Amino acid sequence: MGFQYYIPTRILFGSGQLERLSRKKLPGCKALIVISSGKSTRANGYLDRVEEQLAKAGVESVVFDKISPNPMKSVVMEGAQVARQEGCDFVIGLGGGSSIDSAKAIAVMAANDGDLWDYVYGGTGGGNRMPNKPLPIVAITTTAGTGTEADAWSVVTNEETEEKIGFGNDNTFPVLSIVDPDLMMSVPPKFTAYQGFDALFHSTEGYLSTRASLMSDMYALKAVEMVGRNLAKAVSDGSDKDAREKVAFGNTLGGFVMSVGTTTSEHSIEHAMSAYHSNLPHGAGLIMISLAYYRFFAKQEVCRDRMIDLAKAMGVENADDPMDFVDALEQLQKDCGVADLKMSDYGITPDEFEQIAKNARETMGAQFKCDRVPLTEADCIEILRQSYR
Asked: Of 102, 126, 195, 205, which one is least surrounded by beta carbons within 10 A?
């Protein structure tokens, strides 16, 4: 029953919540707005609406629009330099997980000297304590995938060392997060699916983790229910407001799971995959390995009751076997049109599997310690081999 609970973020959840931004007490007078290098944030009017809200609140803003789907350290460092030069006193992440994660990392480096990797734990990271608190962070999410609006974690790729690592501390929680499903209605079907499965796996991993507690279980099972039973609807009809809202709620609950618990080695393996292949969407990579990954644990018996719980949360009322969860997961992938994703389409080849397995353990080995059964390097390679197309 032991757990630690610390989630200091004020979250505004629900349709129309973006319009409340100007009425909230903001943490500064000039914001750096961090968005992706794509067109959607501007084309859908989200940037204009945020700038309008800030202007109503008497807050100046500067836009930094160079974030890629797998955020790079060099771009984070560039964003931090812009924040310093422009005299920004807080950072807004507007967009998906990559923009918000980047905003957190930029906030760290806008207030601290050196290199981001000086403060990262794992791999070649220096693991140093940050001398100064990061700038305050505001998260405005336009996707339902990472739960980063409700946790302290930021995932960044060091392109020099080919390492993709999550890091954070008590000071990298957003001070304010807006989760407005109205901003998610325009997400295309395949990205709705990729992001939704990422949200799902945060909670399935959290529920199976050795760090699970009654507190994380409460969030995880409801998150799996919300995402597992509504994602296919949101993929099929992006204008289904009820489905969008429920998936968004499940995603935010997944952020709570990661704040009071942790993910497992599934995320470590995928981070290694996309560290080498930055064109691979994180959620797509997780989907690719998920069936082989969960089959491995279904056969071990140590997760038996918990995997049955997950199957029931996804809607399999008469579940009585761990494989019922794997079957439900496979059916959801078919229903969302992502059952046939291929590693080869993203340039991944079988001769990389050993390297990926080693990278996963060297950069995010802590997640392996949360598996209920030790996952060896050979096991990782076999999961990748079984998942390969």
From this structure: 126
